[in-house]
Write a structure and sequence with these properties.
39% helix, single chain, three-stranded antiparallel beta sheet, four-stranded mixed beta sheet, alpha/beta, 303 residues, 10 helices, 22% strand, globular
C-alpha cells in the first residue's frame, strides 16, 4: 500500500503532491538492485512540525508547506524532499548508522537521492544545478566551521545535522560515483545494503563494499573526504612556452589542519578548433604538468 494523508481541503490535490512516489520507489529499487524493503509506505502531512520532514520506517511525516494546489505545484513541487525521505528507507532504516558520528551514511545518501531523482526525471543539467546549490551551501558553512564528515567530537547530536552531513556528503558521493563509474558505484551500494541489511554500519563498511567491487584500495578517498576536515583550494596557472602547455597547480588550503589531497582530474586543451582531454593526478602541494603542443592553445581548463 502507498497512501497519502493530507488535510480535507487538499484531498483532491494529494495525488498531484505525492503522485510520483510509486515511480520513485520503483526507480530506487532498480537503481540499488534492492527492492523497497517494507510492507507499505505512507506520506503524512502534519501541522507545526519542527523540521521539514522525518522518515519513520514505512511512514514519513511532512511539514504542512507540502500542501499545495495543482496550480501552485506548477511553480514548485516537493519531489526533492519526498525523494530524500523515501531514500532513507534504504539508507537509515534498512541499514542504520551505528553512531551519530556516522550520520552521513544516512543524510549524505538521502541528499544524493535528490540528485538521482532529478537526473532521472528532468535530466543531468537540472540535477547539476541542484548539486551546485549543495556545493555552495557547504562552502558557505565552511566559512564558519570545517569538520570531518565522520566526526566523534560533536557536543550534541544536533551538531551533526549540518551542511557537512547533507550537502558536502552528497557532493562527495557524486565524486565517488564519477571516480569509480556508474556500474561499480551502484553495484557497491547494493552490496553495502545486502551485507548490512537490518543492522548498523559505519563508514568503513561502505568503503569495504566499494573495495570489493572495484578491487581498489580506496582508503585514500575515504580518509581525505570522509575522515578529514575541509576541502582543497587550488591555485592554477597555465602558460605556453618551449612547445608545451605548462599547467602549474598549488594546494593553498591550510595543510596543518587539512590534508594535501589526491585529486584525479582532467585538463582540457582546445587547439585549432579541437579539444583534447588529458588525465592528471594532483597529489602534492605544488606540481607542474606539461603537454606538448605545436602552437599557442585557444583555451586551457582544469575540471
Amino acid at each position: 500500500d502507498v497512501k497519502y494523508y493530507v488535510e480535507p481541503a487538499y484531498e483532491k490535490h494529494a495525488r498531484a503532491i505525492f503522485g510520483n512516489t510509486p515511480e520513485m520507489m520503483e526507480f530506487f529499487s532498480k537503481k540499488l538492485n534492492y527492492k523497497y524493503p517494507w510492507a507499505k509506505y505512507s506520506s503524512v502531512v502534519v501541522r507545526d512540525y519542527v523540521s521539514g520532514a522525518m522518515e519513520n520506517t514505512s511512514a514519513t511525516i511532512f511539514m504542512e508547506a507540502l500542501q499545495k494546489t495543482k496550480r501552485e505545484l506548477l511553480d514548485k513541487n516537493w519531489d526533492n524532499i519526498i525523494a530524500h525521505e523515501l531514500f532513507h528507507h534504504w539508507f537509515g532504516d534498512l541499514v542504520t548508522c551505528e553512531s551519530w558520528a556516522n550520520l552521513p551514511l544516512n543524510e549524505s545518501f538521502a541528499t544524493y537521492a535528490e540528485y538521482l531523482w532529478e537526473e532521472y526525471k528532468k535530466g543531468t543539467s537540472h540535477a547539476e544545478y541542484t548539486r551546485q546549490g549543495d556545493m555552495e551551501q557547504y562552502l558557505d558553512e565552511s566559512e564558519r566551521k570545517k569538520e570531518p564528515l565522520i566526526r566523534y567530537n560533536y557536543n550534541v547530536p544536533d551538531d551533526m545535522f549540518d551542511s557537512h552531513s547533507y550537502a558536502k556528503g552528497g557532493c562527495v558521493l557524486h565524486m565517488l560515483r564519477k571516480y569509480v563509474g556508474d556500474e561499480a558505484f551502484f553495484e557497491a551500494l547494493s552490496l553495502y545494503l545486502k551485507n548490512n541489511e537490518f543492522k548498523t554500519a559505519e563508514i568503513h563498511h561502505l568503503r569495504l563494499a566499494f573495495e570489493e567491487v572495484t578491487g581498489e584500495d580506496l582508503n585514500w578517498f575515504f580518509n581525505q573526504w570522509f575522515m578529514s576536515p575541509g576541502h582543497p583550494v587550488l591555485k592554477i596557472t597555465s602558460k605556453y612556452e618551449e612547445g608545451a602547455v605548462k599547467v602549474s597547480t598549488e594546494q593553498i588550503q591550510d595543510t596543518v589542519y587539512m590534508p594535501v589531497y589526491k585529486l584525479p582530474l582532467k585538463v582540457s586543451i582546445w587547439h585549432k578548433g579541437k579539444k583534447e582531454i588529458y588525465p592528471i593526478e594532483i597529489n602534492r602541494a605544488k606540481q607542474q604538468f606539461e603537454f606538448n603542443l605545436e602552437s599557442q592553445p585557444d583555451l586551457v581548463i582544469i575540471d
